[in-house]
Amino acid sequence: MISVGNLLRIGLVVPAVMVADVLLAQHLFPGFDAGAQFISELGGPKAPNPLVFNIGMVLAGLAGMAAGAGFAHALEHAGGRRRVAAFAGLWVAMTGLGALFAGLFHWPDPMHRACGVGLAIQFAPLFTAWALWGKPEHRRLARFSLGWFFFLLLILALLTGVWNVRTGNDVGLWQRGHAFLGVLWLAIAAFCLDRHWRARPATEVAEAAPAERDYAPAAS
User: Fold this and answer.
1) Most buried in the list 43, 104, 187, 217, measured by CB within 10 Å?
2) Judging by beta carbons within 10 Å of its beta carbon (0-12, 13-18, 19+), is residue 200 exposed, middle or buried?
């Protein structure tokens, strides 16, 4: 089975895969307007190379779901709040699930709307901060995640039309901005948790080694 440390490192890969996939798909779509068009259109019927976007989203989605398991386990180890840590991992995994839906059900398939579950990334920073709050060694990550949650909330509000800041010609940019900020937080948090996980005392690592080898999210 994949170790917790490797699951966290997968969380570092997810943002890179998503960003690279979108940029490559846009490059292969002549005339695509990143400001006025939704990301999903890169995998739709009008796209000249829809498989590039769709396959990339499927891969990123599977990786994101795996990263969610690593988050839940590492946060529980770091903070001790088991249920909160489990929900934080769940929100990360749902973000991966949203990408998976986006790749499997192509725009404008009605099932494509299920990719909206990826907005669960909005809550991952909040629950990560909650799980780590009061832990001196994770003070920076907890405060950073809480601040990032409110920042993401503001961007989401603007994306949905609050205060009429968004226009019909820049909805794509707002969508990309929210998605990019979400996966950027994921990469930073995964890096910090992985660094803490690798810095465990040698005795603890030796005791946990058998359990880590046998670790399977479905059996936890």
Assistant:
1) 43
2) middle
First-last CA distance in the chain: 13
pLDDT (tens digit per residue) in 114-134: 999 999 999 999 999 999 999
pTM: 0.86
AA letter at 144: F
Q: How far is CA 70 from the centre of its chain?
A: 12
DSSP tag of 125: H
Distance, in Å, from the CA atom of 208 to the CA atom of 76, rounded to the nearest integer, reads 14
- 37 token code pair: 């068009």
In 6-157, DSSP assigns E strands to none
* pLDDT band of 200, cuts 50, 70, 90: confident
How many residues make up the chain in this entry?
220
Q: How does DSSP assign 13-78, residue by residue?
A: HHHHHHHHHHHHHHHTSTT--TTTS-GGGGGSTT-SSHHHHHHHHHHHHHHHHHHHHHHHHHHHHH
